[in-house]
Specification:
By secondary structure, this protein is mainly α. Helices cover 61% and strands 0% of the residues. The longest helix is centred in the last third of the chain and has 20 residues.
Length: 123
């Protein structure tokens, strides 16, 4: 059985196209994907005023919470509810970091992205 497995593994390696890279679980060096196809890079990071940024994040979070608790979207066939839950979590984390005066770019990007995806599926 071990010989068969080794033979199959060797054959698979030989049959792979030359120069092809196997990106199984390794994200380093893999193809680059646009961060958020719905909104692109977030403009939240360009906001110079932390108070204004915090108010925007709270607004996005509140809108996401409202959608995630609305039965119209909970039982809808559209994925707006899923994106609302994701936006609620990302915006909540971004807000928590902002309360400590830390600008967490990853969660800010996710907050804006997931909120825009939610709005996209609501329309």
């Amino acid at each position: 059985m071990k010989k068969l497995a080794k033979s199959l593994l060797c054959c698979a390696a030989l049959l792979a196209p030359a120069g092809s890279a196997g990106y199984a679980a390794d994200l380093v060096g893999g193809p680059q994907i646009e961060y958020c196809p719905a909104s692109g890079p977030t403009a939240l990071l360009l906001t110079g005023n932390v108070g204004q940024l915090t108010a925007t994040v709270v607004r996005l979070m509140d809108e996401s919470v409202a959608v995630s608790e609305d039965p119209q979207w909970i039982y809808s066939r559209r994925p707006a509810f899923v994106w609302a839950v994701e936006a609620k979590a990302a915006c909540g984390r971004a807000f928590g970091y902002l309360k400590t005066n830390y600008l967490d770019e990853d969660n800010l990007n996710k907050c804006a992205c997931f909120h825009s995806r939610m709005v996209e599926y609501m329309n």
